[in-house]
Structures are given as structure tokens and as C-alpha cells.
Amino acid sequence: MEDFSGLSAGVRIFSASDDYSGEFMTNPTVPKQFTNVHAATVYLRKHAIVGANTVILPGVEIRQGGAVGAMSLVTKDVPAF
Q1: Phi-psi region of 51 (alpha: psi -120 to 50; beta: other; left: phi over 0)
Q2: CA-to-CA dists, residue 4 to 7, 22, 59, angstroms
Q3: What confidence tens digit (pLDDT) does each residue in 16-59 have?
Q4: What's CA 62's distance to the chain center, in Å?
């Protein structure tokens, strides 16, 4: 999170997620070679705002001044302003 960015109540940011395609197993007790966990950094640039109860998935960048409405599912980058 950069300067002046903000999160509303209930926002969830995930930096890692299992592969739910059905080609891999998903469970923290399954050996690593049988899973396909995707992990990536999430960036909130200056003046980015995120509405209440939004879910942000791994690898997303909310660019400077980007705004996300409440209860959104963010799977791709959000453009600036």
C-alpha cells in the first residue's frame, strides 16, 4: 500500500490461492507436488481506494487513483484514475 491508499471495512486481499481448475488437489495437508498454488504480490498505488467487502486476488495492481466499488471481485489490474 502506497501513500494515501485506503481500504474500507471487510476488504480481503489474497497474495496466494489454490488452483481450483480440477487438475490439481487443494488442501493445506496435500503434498506440494500435487498442488498448484499461485502466489503474487498485490499492489495498491497512491490514492487507490477499495470499497467495503471487496476481494482482491493475487497479482493485482490497483494503479494510482484507481477506485474499486464495494463488494467487487478484483481479478485483473485496475487502471489509473
Answers
A1: beta
A2: 10, 40, 21
A3: 999 999 999 998 899 999 999 999 999 999 999 999 999 999 99
A4: 10
* 25 close to 34: Cβ distance less than 8 angstroms: yes
Please report, for residues 14, 32, 46, 74, 79, the alpha-carbon distance to residue 63 in angstroms, rounded to integers and kept in the order given. 17, 33, 7, 13, 5
Q: Are 75 and 38 in contact (CB under 8 A)?
A: no
Q: What is the DSSP letter of 78?
A: B
Amino acid at 54: T
Whether this model's pTM surpasses 0.85: yes
DSSP 15: S
Rounded CA-CA distance 45/37 in Å is 25
Length of the chain: 81
